[in-house]
Fold this protein.
Amino acid sequence: METLDERVVRAPLRTIFALVRDVERWPAHLAHYRWVRFRDRAPDGGGIVEMAAWRPFGLVRWPTWWLSEMAVSETRPAVRFRHIGGITTAMDVEWSFEEVAGGTHVRLLHVWDGPRWPLIGVFAATAVIGPVFIHGIASRTLAGLAAAAERVAGGAPGGHHPVAVHSPGGSSS
């Protein structure tokens, strides 16, 4: 299962990269995040991070939670997560950034084989968990951090340009 969310953010690469890597402040920018806290910090700015968010369904909010190993690459630049706890254990997530005309192209890729549930694991991942929960939260996260970066950079609110939205099936890894 792969989900891909990407867009051009009207802000310098360093601005959006700084917001993405500062995961503890995500709840200040993102109404759907309940909390983010480090259990252990690594010298690169990553470490073991616990995250919790809401997946809204109209008036109902479904609570989600996961634990990840986070790594930050200054040279690439990229922020990577490997989920090590929660229903999405073994999922790989990568935020990548590329300078483009007018701002920064940001890609948020999730790759996962699904939960280890006999018979229904792959179906659950590709039909429900990926497109409904992962994409539902990831698209809001990218949009919220893009808006925050554009505010910091002085860009016009809503001045982002989605370049692609979620590929629900993708390839199995």
